[in-house]
Amino acid sequence: MGDWNTRLELKIGNDVITPVDSFNPTFTTTWTPVHSLEADNVGAIVHPATATFTLTVKAIGSSVATLTKAALDGTKFQLQLAESSGTDWTFKKLLFRDCLITSISPSSTTPDGAPVATVNGIILGFGADSDIELP
Question: What pLDDT, in 10s, does the model give residues 19-29?
Answer without folding.
Answer: 888 888 888 88
